[in-house]
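Hey, sorry to bother you again with one of my protein questions. A protein chain has come my way and I'm curious about its shape. It would help a lot if you went through both lines with me. I owe you a coffee for this, so here goes:
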Amino acid sequence: MSDLQELYQEMILDHGRKPRNFGPLEDANHHAVGHNPLCGDHFSVRLRTADGIIVDARFEGAGCAISTASASMMTQLLKGKSLEEADEIFSRFHELIAGEGDADDPKLGKLAVFAGVKRFPTRVKCATLAWHTVHAALGGQSDPVSTE
């Protein structure tokens, strides 16, 4: 394993073990629930926006290291972003995971660590679950999001 792959793996494990922004967000004005029935991962994402900016983002639930790390890093990256920027990052992340995006895309920042997930199709749903959930929250979708 290359030093870069090892670093990426360690970053995912770190966020999987010690997720950032994990817990309730009492004053959220956007909320959605997501579930991956294939593996049982499930998350609730809550956002607080003001004037078109994501002021705070938090999540709760349980999932594998990849889905938890993705949710953790997502909430870190989205804070302070406009709703338009969040939508663009969602699209670019989805392209990266599908093997069509660029791991050097500056908009993705540390999310580049997930570029290798494309080699494991069943894990793509793990990496994108929180993203689909936040996309639903920002779109006002009330039905739970499913990766199926």
User: Anything to note?
Assistant: The chain has one domain: 3-139. The radius of gyration is 14 Å.
